[in-house]
Amino acid sequence: MKATVILLAAVVAAACAHGGRPESASRTQAQSARNEAKLAAALGGMVAGPAQDCVLERDLGSNEAYGGRAILFDGPTGDVVYVNRPPAGCPGLDSGRALKLRTPAARLCRGDVVTVFEPVSGTDLGGCSLGQFTPYRRGASRDRGTE
Questions:
Q1: Mean pLDDT confidence for 110-126
Q2: For the purposes of burial, counting CB atoms within 10 Å of the CB of 26, is it exposed (0-12), middle (13-18) or buried (19 or more)?
Q3: 3-state DSSP call for residue 96?
Q4: Which of 19, 71, 101, 123 is the most buried (most CB within 10 A)?
């Protein structure tokens, strides 16, 4: 009986150790690379500015998730967007889902927790804590003073 329990424990331990299949890890890495490439394409021709801890909520438009690791917010004009990379990611935030951005202070800041929800059903799916906001501006906007 004792040998059976030890054998069972060894089998369970081995299964846990091998739980992250190599093919699923490579699929995850490939998807992550695709998401980063899509984000880079969306930011094409834009120049990053210094990261900010807070942004006025009125300056944030629609948002798009890039695999739950990066969120691209439209800015107040077509010349600026903001990228936020939640430190722990934002599980559940993917295509077809959205963020609730209601804050009492009318600004969204690093560390604020936002809710991920399904817009069609209105179902809350969890949330995540935001990171800093990095503004990206069109490359030409930095040259305006030299024209």
A1: 88
A2: exposed
A3: coil
A4: 71
CA 129 to chain centre: 10
What is each CA distance from 117 to 6, 38, 68, 79, 137, in whole angstroms?
45, 23, 13, 28, 29
Mean pLDDT confidence for 103-112: 83
Which strand (E) or helix (H) includes residue 7?
Answer: helix 2-17
d(CA 119, CA 140): 36
Residues with Cβ within 8 Å of residue 40, at least 6 apart in sequence: none
Residue 140 pLDDT > 90, yes or no?
Answer: no
Domain boundaries, the chain: 1-42, 46-146
How far, in Å, CA of 5 to CA of 21, rounded? 26
